[in-house]
Amino acid sequence: HLSHDLQTTLTAVYTAGNELFFAHVGNSRAYIFRDGELMQLTRDGMSDRQPHAMPAGVERSSIPRRLSTDTLGGPGSEGPRIDIERCGLFHDDLVLLCTNGLTAVVDDASIAQALRAYPTPDEQSRALTDLVDQAGGTEETTLLVAHYSIRN
Predict the structure, then answer these.
(1) Pick from 120, 97, 124, 121: which is nearest to 112 by CA?
(2) 57 vs 18, residue with greater confidence
(3) Contact at 8 Å (CB) between 92 and 148?
(4) How many CB atoms lie within 10 A of CB 122?
(5) Which residue(s) pair with 100 in the sheet?
(6) How many CB atoms lie within 10 A of CB 17?
(7) How far apart, in whole angstroms, are the C-alpha atoms of residue 82 and residue 125?
(8) Between 94 and 138, residue with greater pLDDT
């Protein structure tokens, strides 16, 4: 007997040259940190909401599957609605993937400040997890910071 209590969200990325492809379901998030600015790429929860405005220089195409729930392993036979999207990468972009264990307790401005303050992905990741601890976060937090160096 499988329990329907086991649910998760997912944000997965793949790069090909200077393109970032990402698949997303639920309320985990993907961000690009470019030129000191943090830009959220994914939308939280159900993806039938209107897409948020993308900053200049970031292009996106959407291939959503029209399904009913917003988690993997949730109830219902139709399965999750998965957004599959892409955007261009520039040299020195940072990509941040994180669960809502970070974003539930740390706002975007504080995330951007931590990314600006430290030069390496390891230090940035530590700073972000420290912010979660300082805020008293109670959910498990998973995050990944990747720095892209694109050569022509």
Answers:
(1) 124
(2) 18
(3) yes
(4) 10
(5) none
(6) 9
(7) 27
(8) 94
pTM of the model: 0.74
Burial of 11 (0-12, 13-18, 19+ CB in 10 A): buried
Question: Does residue 11 or residue 40 have the better pLDDT?
Answer: 40
Q: The tokens of 17 are what?
A: 């040259």
94-98 sheet: strands from edge to edge: 37-40, 29-34, 94-98, 143-147
pLDDT at residue number 43:
78
Residue 104 to residue 65: CA distance in whole angstroms: 26
DSSP per position, 61-113: EE-----SBSSBT-SSSS-B--EEEEEE--TT-EEEEE-HHHHTTS-HHHHHH
Is pLDDT of 52 > 50? no
Partner residues linked to 98 by β-bridges: 29, 143
Q: Quick one: 76 exposed, middle or buried, by C-beta within 10 A (0-12, 13-18, 19+)?
A: exposed
The C-alpha atoms of residue 134 and residue 61 are separated, in whole angstroms, by: 37
Cβ neighbours around 15 below 10 Å, total: 15
